[in-house]
Automatic annotation (TrEMBL):
Single GO molecular function: zinc ion binding
SMART domains assigned: Fungal_trans
Record InterPro entries: Carb_Metab_Trans_Reg (IPR050797), XnlR_reg_dom (IPR007219)
GO BP annotation list: DNA-templated transcription; nitrogen catabolite activation of transcription from RNA polymerase II promoter
Gene Ontology terms: cellular component: nucleus
UniProt name for this protein: Xylanolytic transcriptional activator regulatory domain-containing protein
Amino acid sequence: MGFSPGNSQLHHEPLDRDMEYSYNDPNQVGPGHSTRNDPQSELMGRHPSMEYMDDHPISPDVDSLQQLGAITSPASQPVQRIRSLDLIEGSIAQFYGMSSESDPWLLRHCRYDEYGMRSMHRTQIRNVGGVPVDGLVPVHFLETERDLMLPQSPEMDTCSRKDTMHYRNELDAMVSPTHGERLLSLFLRFVFPAIPIISRSQLGICSSVSTAALEKIPVHLLAAIYASATPFAVHDPVLCISAAYGELLCDKLWGMVYELILKETHTPKLAVLQASLLYLQQIPAGSLEALPDGPFIWSFLGSTVALAVSLGIHVEPRPWGIPPWEKRLRRRLWWAVYVEDKWRSLLTGRPSFIHPEEFDIFELSANDFIQDEKPQEHDLDCQPFFYYGTGLARIVENLHRTFYTIKASQRLSDDFRASIDAARPIRAQLQQWYLSLPDNLRLKRSSGGNSHPASNPVEGAADLHFSYLVLEMFLYRAILRPLARSPPPPPISDDTDPTSMGSSWLVEDLTFDRHVFDQLPLMNSMQLGEAEEATLKAAEKCAAIIVNFVGALVPHEFGSFWHPLSNFITLLLVQAPTRQHALRSKDLLDLWSHTLRYQHRSHESLMKLGLVRLNQMQIEGLENIFNLPAHVSDILRDKQHN
């Protein structure tokens, strides 16, 4: 079924309760998670095993546990007490996979203490407990003493001679605790809504930030928070007048973050994953502004996904015997990892690290954004943006799997009818997603281009709209592939075995905008030529909408945009089948060039890559880069002379 957001109101679940959990009966299916349901198809539905939990708050009394089928004999069945997986001093917890060296189906027969622990010399097996429900798998963690996991040779650990206090003092020297409180406040205001990867309940943050909250945050995560918030220092009356909060400080902070991530990866806790996610969000600086993601970022993302899986973040934690704040944090962390993986996979054209059958985290709800101190208040400033962003990422996965894997590209790149048929359900998902947005995520523009949100705009709403437009563009980019075939590539010579390779040339491209998009043609009611013409016009309209959207953005609406639109419009021009289409595409390319140069004045770091790509093509000349139809070459020549 894919992503299907339904109405614009987020569903609410009963609040998590601090409670005791019954052990599962060894003769029944143990606590844990479904292997029978694909979470892709369950995103907006309800999983049978979770229905009781969602509809009935679970109390610790025996009667409630008997209702759930968790125990058969109150006298003989002990209860398991709440205990954090992440806050146990001196040890780390690793998830036991279904085929790991210790069989989870064997481990469920072990005897555990009241906290679900079974000691095995210097390691312990942790049964996270929960409510046993048919269809779920047993979930266990291996808790190991931290010292056992440290590298044995100094060469393996470049930071081995530096202790935690050394790094804490070094960070305090760069950012005083007083300024640190202000940076954390800026983080919660500007960064947290887009990537809510810390727990305010765990840190004791209610209405304001205190030094005590800073002391609870591990150094690597605190440095990442400071670095993420530093670009927003202009919004703080104290920090904005300090020359210290600039690129130089950011570079030092990110350097410390990376150094400590490498050190702590040997003995990871949630803070290492949190810091890694923030590290992936840093805005490129210097020469990196003009380059796409390099191999390092992709490798680092793979390490981040692997770290999340090692920590068991990919497994639904709501039935577990851990604190409510930790359940909520784990669920948000997984979706942050998922969003990062799916978008970077699509934008770089590389295989995703996350397979839909290897996680069972269900959709976010209002309760995933509450604080223990204010259980009746749902953080609606944060919730809609991240919630709808995760829904859009599910469509990213569907689009990538349908059109942009190697096998899908081979199958569809020369089949226009099949491409249209494959695109139609994805287009329906995109339209349904957009219609589901609440008023505070909608952008209303006047004729002058200024934004007039319906009510209480959410910071970063423009990012969400632009992401939606990028997906529309990627959809047309895939549909356009069969419409124009390039000449075969020249033969590749080899001294020992001369051969020639003949294959269709795939022109890479991207970018796009939003409003009212044309419907995809119905192939059964149109001739092939008519359908191709309708598709080309719709793609041109799509490009025009994106150009206008970016041109109308005002400073407060800019975020972490990607700009592959130059390639998309160039593709329209290179593949233009007629002089009329070539004229439209060239005019669009000129308008896009003007838009990039105009917005580049105040948003250099966001616009530079797109502008560099376009300048490179314009300097060398499109006619010297591409094999162009005669009518396209004529258009370019005429434009140069005018």
